[in-house]
Amino acid sequence: MLEESDADRIPGLIPVKYQRMAVSPFTFFRGAAIVQAPDLAKAPVSGIMVQACGDCHLATTRRFPQSPFPGIASIKAKATETIFTPKAGYRVVDSPKLQADALIGLRYWHIGENLSFQPSGLLSNYSQAANFVDVIAGAKISMGLSPKASVTVLGDAGAGQANVDYQVAAFLGYRVKPTVMLGAG
Questions:
Q1: Does residue 49 or residue 107 have the better pLDDT?
Q2: What is the span of the domain harbouring residue 172?
Q3: pLDDT for the residue 57
Q4: By percentage, how much of the chain surpasses pLDDT 70?
Q5: CA-to-CA distance for 152 and 174, rounded, in angstroms?
Q6: Which of 40, 88, 145, 183 could in theory staple to 149 by disulfide, Cβ–Cβ 3.0 to 4.6 A?
Q7: For residue range 124-159, what is the model confidence (pLDDT) as tens digits?
Q8: Judgement on whether residues 147 and 91 belong to the same structural domain of the protein
Q9: Are residues 172 and 105 in the same domain?
Q10: Does 58 have pLDDT greater than 50?
């Protein structure tokens, strides 16, 4: 079974996979899902389809302008924003051409800024950060255009520490392999 599952893998990485699997029983089963699949297929199924998904964004901006202050060689300004949105979903519609999921989850925001002056000591450095957590609910709708192409629209809205926030996205997907899809949007 393991050799069959390696058929679509990069040949040069297969020895690395087996080397990592040999470290412990945990790493063996982590790299050998195909071995577990027949046992799990015999287990009872509730019939409830659950989809776990999420996204994570990290943005950093840095600028090094000339200093307007005498004695300060440079000012370094850095702003960071991190957004992490884990969600769980329930499949409401599941047909060959259309899938619709109801989603619920959390959105974590981290926003920070930092100013530093060189040489240090002439002015004090400035740093500030804030964290927010919001509860969100949304939906994801996917429609098949062909056996390999699909269009997906998703959105969510929430409220909490960051007041009301929302996101909407759409992308076109192309299935490269049965479990791999490339998306652009």
A1: 107
A2: 44-184
A3: 47
A4: 78
A5: 11
A6: 145
A7: 677 888 888 889 999 999 999 998 999 999 999 988
A8: yes
A9: yes
A10: no
Report the predicted TM-score, pTM, of the whole model to 2 decimal places. 0.52
Residues 52 and 101 in one domain: yes
Q: Find all residues with CB under 8 Å of 184, minimum gap 6, and list them.
A: 171, 172
90-105: burial string, b at 16+ Cβ within 10 Å, e else: eeeeeeeeebbbebeb
Tally of domains in the chain = 2
Whether residue 57 sits in one domain with residue 83: yes
